Amino acid sequence: MSSTVEPEPTSDMPDEYFTSMYADDLDPWGFDTSWYEQRKYEISLALLPRQRYRSAIEPGCSNGALTRRLADRCDRLIAFDLHAGAVEEARRRLAGQPHVEVRHERFPDYWPDGTGDLVVWSEVAYYLGDDNGRRAIDRLDDWLELDGHLLSVHYTGPTNYPRAGADIAPWLDELDWLEPTSRCVDAAFEAVVWTRCR
């Protein structure tokens, strides 16, 4: 009698990774300075089909570099991150914008009440292991309204993360309640917008 050995489920990226990344710099990935990041933000936002969204969330907002740009397109925006220092920097950056709330929370444990029409996963989904990946999908299913949009953008080069960036879009493509609306496949990242179709 043969037995099948199930693969070990992948775990989330450990908190220590983020602690070390932010130890000396609140912009360790160059969100404010690198051309890669600036170009990626512009392309990602240009893919969004609507000029304005009623209610949006951005998990893993880091220091708020993308959040500041998203704020111009949203009536209400909740952004959050697990690193306290990054959250404080994002709050400083978004001060004076009362329609934006920046919270110190963990993705996908935290998800705001109610529903909304935009979810932005920018460089965040590939930090999730199998269990929290499933939880994130369940939370997305509960929160995203019909005809709402999910924007997912991830670096596709080599990393030591639980998931490869190039695997995020195929993973989301498997969901029969999301329909791809627009896609940009770049040499270094993939940005896709899906529409909630049922």
Automatic annotation (TrEMBL):
UniProt record, GO biological process: oligosaccharide biosynthetic process
InterPro entries noted in UniProt: SAM-dependent_MTases_sf (IPR029063), SAM-MeTfrase_NodS-like (IPR008715)
Xref: Pfam families: NodS
A GO term for molecular function: S-adenosylmethionine-dependent methyltransferase activity
Domain of life: Bacteria
Residues in coiled coil: none
CDD domains per record: AdoMet_MTases (cd02440)
Protein name as catalogued: Methyltransferase
